[in-house]
Amino acid sequence: MNPKFLECWRLKKEFRTDKGPFVAVRDFSLNVAEGEFVSIIGHSGCGKSTVLSMIAGLHSLNGGGMILDSREVTGAGPDRAVVFQSPNLLPWLSALDNVTLGIEQVRPNSTYDERAEIANRWLTCVGLGRATHKKPSELSQGMQQRVGIARAFALEPKMLLLDEPFGMLDSLTRIELQDILLDVWSSNRITALMVTHDVDEAVTLSDRIVMMTNGPAATIGHILEIPFLRPRERASIMEKSEYMDYRDEVLSFLDHPEEKMPQLAAAMA
After folding, report:
1. Strand 159-163 relative to strand 80-83: parallel, antiparallel, unpaired?
2. Separation between Cα atoms, residue 67 and residue 246, nearest integer Å
3. Parent domain of 217
């Protein structure tokens, strides 16, 4: 396993505003191992999604660089599949065709039947095997997000990027989809990086949790290892005393980042 499957060093993102340049993220350096599931957590507006967008190639860099599987990242590409908070399905296409459309981009020489077979397999994996013919308007919000997850996995990317994928869902649906994601991801262990604001979600899904400081010029403040064995079951890990310890450590950082970063506290004094 490559311990530096994704290498990010000193990433910087600056936006132009009416009041002058605004540095959203600065000196963000992180290595992600092949097959690892890493979550980025922090307060709203700290630059979590900006980091993910830079890695996805959707935002240009103002500093630093990235390497994915020994190749420099210079823009968007099919080697990174993104699951957004909203699945953005094409409303005139069925669930099946929304997934096959993505497959066509990475397998241009495949037949429709070949693409449909792949799409069916992944839609079945996320529990939509009997709803492949339905259009988005016939699906609940949670079911639409399942289509988005199936579409991402069907691309067979080198890396899965998830930008608060369950943030718009009610708590019960969110837990259900977290478990589905965990099951599907465990079957192939695609290297994954997820942005979330949900502490329990991060502890349940992740191998490591990256905690970001508050912006502007946000960066990594602390990284927490989550050594629960895989495959994981929510009920079994939540019974462990360590679960609450990890949860409390994340909450403690979010409430008092200066305690983990004395140098940050000194700079703010």
Report:
1. parallel
2. 30
3. 6-79+157-268
* 96 token code pair: 């099946």
pTM of the model: 0.93
Is position 68 within any domain? yes
Nearest Cα to Cα of residue 73 among 169, 180, 157: 157
137 DSSP 8-state letter:
G
CA nearest neighbour of 209 among 189, 223, 198, 196: 223
- C-alpha count within 13 angstroms, C-beta hemisphere, residue 166: 22
Q: How far apart are CA 116 and CA 134, in angstroms?
A: 14
Q: Look at residue 111 and tell me if it is in a domain.
A: no
- The distance of Cα 71 from the centroid of its chain, to the nearest Å, equals 20
By DSSP bridging, strand 20-32 and strand 6-17 are antiparallel
196 sits in which H/E element: strand 191-196
Q: Please report where in the chains the tokens 């957004």 appear, as a residue.
A: 84
Is 1 inside a domain boundary?
no
Q: Is 104 exposed, middle or buried (0-12, 13-18, 19+ CB in 10 A)?
A: middle
The string of pLDDT tens digits covering residues 134-193 is 999 999 999 999 999 999 999 999 999 999 999 989 999 999 999 999 999 999 999 999
